[in-house]
Amino acid sequence: MAARPADQAAAPFTPRADFSVLTASAEAIRRELGKVIVGQHELVELLLTAILADGHVLLEGVPGVAKTLTAKLLARTLNVPFSRLQFTPDLMPSDVLGTSIFRPNKGDFEFRPGPIFASVVLIDEINRAPAKTQSALFEVMEERHITQDGTTYAMQEPFLVLATQNPIEQEGTYRLPEAQLDRFLFKIHIGYPTTEEEVAILQGHHAGFGGTPLEVVQPVLTAAQIAGLRQLVRRQHVEPKLLEYIAKLVGQTRAHKSLYLGASPRASLALLNGAKALAALRGRDFVTPEDVQYLAPAVLRHRILLTPEREMEGTTTDDVVKQIIQAVEVPR
């Protein structure tokens, strides 16, 4: 076959939408986090995807892998209100949502907002609070408002919950209700660093950077800018075949012999919104099957339950998600 003439060479890809501001902002956030965090590139990409997709994130990993630090640093790159909650067994719903205080001089009650009234809320060790306190998060995580004494109070936008939990230690913890897990867009597993990354951590600590000064990380995006970028993401192009592909992937979780519980339509919406945000982060104005496959483990692993037999055999939900991805035909 004759070579294509130079003047007939394929033109470079030009997005139909301008993602230059979005990709530049994402790169700036990566640089700011890189001042303190070593490695964790996939984690940062998924966190940025969650911000653009307007979804909450559950971070799971053993102590010492920078779960809380990463969440705090990410919050610093956003010029929005931030609060942190340490969940404990004696925490009450009013400690999260707020409470009404009686004012004797006026003879009425005044509502004092709790720490949930922030744009980025970091909940440390979320599985240490009992069901009564966990239930306080149901309404606010899904509907972005709370109801107190018959009055509804809306959250300001953006509203993002970043929660951490330790998968190993079970003493003094409570299993999160499935309805609450379903409200998290992603569940991200944070593993150990590589040997090279750990050497870099040690070098930085030895050089005097061990105090992890948060002030070195500067804000990148405002609330108004985040809202604008989210609007851009929502207008992403998605082929009808891809919508069918997402539905088939999620549908397979409800029929798989290794699963006791499959994913709900909320998982399909999470895959769609996440894939649109990921494509935009990668500079594309259209979604590909690879975007959906990349996000499938983070979207599905906390929304499905293994049968007791498979659990005893050591099978993981990630194993089943991988099997489903391989079994469902990829649209072309």
UniProtKB/TrEMBL annotation:
Known CDD domains for this protein?
A: AAA
Domain AAA+ ATPase: from-to ranges: 53-194
SMART domains per UniProt: AAA
User: What Gene3D superfamilies does the database record attribute to this sequence?
Assistant: Magnesium chelatase subunit I, C-Terminal domain (1.10.8.80), P-loop containing nucleotide triphosphate hydrolases (3.40.50.300)
- What is this protein called in UniProt? MoxR family ATPase
Q: Which domain of life is it from?
A: Bacteria
Q: Which PANTHER family match?
A: MAGNESIUM-CHELATASE SUBUNIT CHLD (PTHR42759:SF1), MOXR FAMILY PROTEIN (PTHR42759)
